Amino acid sequence: MSATEQKEKTWEVTFELHGEETTVLMRPDDTILQAAELAGLRAPYDCRRGNCLTCAGRFKAASSYNLVTTLRQEAGGAVTLDSDTFLCDEAKDEGFFLSCCSYPVGPGLRVELGVQKEAWQIQYCDRLRDEATRAAALEAVAQVQRGYSERNPDKFVADLERQFEGEGGVDGAA
């Protein structure tokens, strides 16, 4: 299919938001979020760059998976696909996507919007429950804190002294 034929193609997409279903014809150059807005839906969003979870959507039962994530226009007009968004692989495996940077590529899409709480639960809670993941996350935080302290030694020393003053010294004795 040529680029011109692809742009003229439309697909029927069914959105669910707050329990209400709306079906629209969608162009392949509109994101899921843009199509929802054109249909008059007030779907949640924030960054529009795939850097937050506010616009999270989820495939509904009996939906096709005719969706790609993040079309980027490169210099010279070449289009490349990049699925590297803020959404973790575990959430993607559960059928979540970010509507601000996801485009239809075929018929049969049925999606639920406004599911950022569920995506957040997977992104920040569920996937950090196993001990190995939690240990890796704690190590990453420690590395960031260590790096900050190395770049700001005066602040680090002042903060450390303030902590020890409040506890009565290094050994906790007053």
Automatic annotation (TrEMBL):
Transmembrane segments: none
Cofactor(s) in the UniProt record: [2Fe-2S] cluster
Gene3D superfamilies: 3.10.20.30
Domain 2Fe-2S ferredoxin-type as annotated: residue spans: 11-117
Keywords, in A-Z order: 2Fe-2S, Electron transport, Iron, Iron-sulfur, Metal-binding, Transport
Gene Ontology terms, MF aspect: 2 iron, 2 sulfur cluster binding; metal ion binding
Keyword Transport attached: yes
Taxonomic superkingdom: Eukaryota
Record family assignment: Belongs to the 2Fe2S plant-type ferredoxin family.
Name under which the protein is recorded: 2Fe-2S ferredoxin-type domain-containing protein
Lineage start: Eukaryota, Sar, Stramenopiles, Ochrophyta, PX clade
